[in-house]
Amino acid sequence: MSKINVAVFIGSNRKESYSKKLALALKKLSPQDLNLNIVNINNLIIYNQDLEDENKEPQSWLKLRETIREHDAVLFITPEYNRSIPPVLKNALDIGSRPYGQNAWDKKPGAVISISPGGMGGFGANHHLRQVLVSLNVPVMAQPEAYIGNIYALFDEKGILKDDRTSTYLSAFAIAFLQWVKTNI
User: Fold this and answer.
1) Which of 7, 21, 76, 108 has its CA 20 to 30 A from that of 68?
2) How many C-beta atoms surround the C-beta of residue 181 within 10 A?
3) pLDDT digits (tens, 9 = 90+) for 22-39
4) What is the pTM assigned to this prediction?
């Protein structure tokens, strides 16, 4: 396998999202074998099983499931909202896991990066997301863990990662993730 295609899910739908800025920085820092593709989940209709039962699933749901299946692995970059994950990300997880018995996430190797303006780096969101991914049968990379705190201080006014320590860490994370995916495909 030459390139590993990774679907990247951003937990924030803000225009100036730090999660997206971090994803773009990681894309530049990753090995060439790791092809990171940001998946837009901002316009997904909230999951409702009635739409499935009535064969009225929105096209955006079907496209999301297809996109997940087309990728070799998944990566989640998310802020923490009230010690958990944002609703836009939870909705995407729910949509991808349905209909029952057709879980698009099944056995896709994954990893989690959480961010926060505070010093804890989204610890609660990271572990809550890992709990959800276990139920979806996503083998999640255990190490290195990625909790990026004080996120607002890591980027310049153009949204470019300016912190060398974080760049070095993200490069190492990407290399470890590539190995994790290769081991679990």
Assistant:
1) 21
2) 25
3) 999 999 999 999 999 999
4) 0.97
